[in-house]
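During the reporting period the student researcher (J.K.) took over the structure-prediction task from the postdoctoral fellow and processed the backlog of single-chain submissions. One of the processed entries is reproduced below for the supervisory committee.
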Amino acid sequence: MSTLAIIDYGSGNVRSVQRAIESAAAHGGHTINVTLTSDPETIARADRIVLPGVGHYADCAEGLAARTGVIEAISEAAFARGRPFLGVCVGMQLMADVGREDIETPGLGWIGGAVELLAPNDPALPIPHMGWNVLRTTKPHPLLEDLGAEPHVYFVHSYALTAESEEDVAAVTDYGGPFVAAVARNNLFGAQFHPEKSQQTGQRLLSNFLSWRP
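J.K. obtained the following structure tokens:
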């Protein structure tokens, strides 16, 4: 049986992500053992990796770094072994070079760019951005297949990634101007939105992740 490791580093959405993945596996006919873990050996051996995250970028980065050997294990699984990796919300943001939420905090450096405060061109639009938006695919990707003509996904965030290369951007959405909603490179995928809160669309994306063979 294949294994999926959800990185447990104190983020508030780990349980909801776990439940959503288990639901997607059951409904999609995927046989997989989903584990919530901070054990480096378990992470390094996993067939798939999910890094969730909600809240403050620096707090999430600090929480991840505080788990001894976890970042190294994620890197081994993703790069040395080429395992499929999914970052969710702040988990996606941590893939960037740096986050600029209150203070400048280094990220994992996997996707070139910086996480910066949303700046809608309409000052009446509130920050944080909360709610449903249409996902617009900018390049084909297996995780974005069969989502429907106008897939709506759920966002809760104040900061977004400004990617250095358009080639890393898989999808955008609009909130007083476009911003990056998903990134992809090789076996790495990141979603600024919450698949676990995005109902049928989120379930389809998670099912796609479970069958993805990059």
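The committee noted the following: The chain has one domain: 2-211.
J.K. will present the remaining backlog at the next meeting.
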